[in-house]
Amino acid sequence: MNRLFLLFLFSLTLNKVSGQSRYDSLWADPSVESRIQSGIEKNRKANATITLNVRKGKLPRGAKIEIHQLTHDFQFGSNIFMLDGYAKPEQNTRYEAVFKELFNLACVPFYWKTLEPKEGVLRYDASSSKIYRRPPPDPVLDFCEKNGITPKGHTLVWDNVSHANPVWMPRDTTIMQEKIDLRIRQLGERYGQRVKTWDVVNELLSYHTSAIRMPDNFGLKSFQQFSKSFPKTTRGFINETTSIWTNYHREYSPYKLLIDNLKNKGAEIDGIGLQFHFFSETLHQDVVAGKSITPKTVFDVLDLYGAYKLPIHISEITIPALPFNETGLANQAKMTRNFYRAWFSHEAVEAIVWWNVSDGTAVAGEDKWHGGFLNEDLTPKPAYHALNDLINKEWKTSLTKSLDGVEPVSFRGFCGEYSVRISIGKETIEKKFTIKKGQQNELSIDL
Predict the structure, then answer these.
(1) Which residue, of 94, 112, 205, 235, has the fewest CB within 10 Å?
(2) What's the pTM?
(3) Nearest-CA neighbor of 444 among 425, 427, 429, 428?
């Protein structure tokens, strides 16, 4: 074989290896790992004490206490666009089971285009016509309430005709603004008490080829109408594309300037959404190679928007499995673990929202990224195991301890709801309590 050709192959291999090792070394850097670990310990855990009031003076031999975390205070979620949306009943059952197993937050579709496909015809209840990836909100909210899942409404106003603005929308911007205001009032009246967090405006900075001319200051007006139409206990978020991670210029970052502009004009913004879709092969390759969206970038961006002292949602996540083989699947799982740990560690982040649960369920053109954590047949990918290990194992507190005396049982655990089970011979006492940041987490049990 030609010596030059061999050298060429060697250089390709070396570049691939060095790129991969660069990515790994960035995330394994001791300063990065220290920030992640200390952030998780400080921001996601709290101290708790269980006091035992023993009537008879002391406990018998063999008494023990078991403490198990049941739920998370932190919000882990996904869009719930495929609820009852698969062809086979067993697929829908599997989807529901996985959703309940992993998530306590659901992004509920309120896209105008499919919620009101004809003017005045509103698809709210379970009897509504079926539209792919757009289940009507009433049955979705019923599912969420039944299973202790917090709903988040997405989205009230978006200029994208392909996905959001209805085809019947008038092009006269004065009439259009009246329609926007009416839509916000209607949703506030019907869902203001059931859905407490909403994406008010979506992707104001992004130009879409399918965008239409919207009313002047429609973003500001949308927030103002939201404040009038929804209860004061309901929160309105702004949401922007993945460009915020790559178009970062400290205080001159476009998204920051937009937020400042809206706030200065009187918009009440209650939270900030940061999307995380890798809808570019170049971006994906650069991230895998450690050239883009590095740990430093992640923390720089979170620190910038965290300075507003508003909750941040990592609002839409598509991490591709490219190439769709063993290497691509492993990279997807690795990036999932790394980014989730960084986001979870940051004080400002309140929620992390994966986008499509399974492959084959994205909008047209996006399935090529294989961005689900389940395969098309709903079997788990390595990314599923990465998520499950973090959410249900590594970030859940459990302990079992023998009770030799009546001293208080003190521990530090992840915030959420807990079960406490005390076994004394054949007698068992069970209690529930909640650990939260910034409060005295104490439980007193009479024995």
Answers:
(1) 205
(2) 0.94
(3) 429
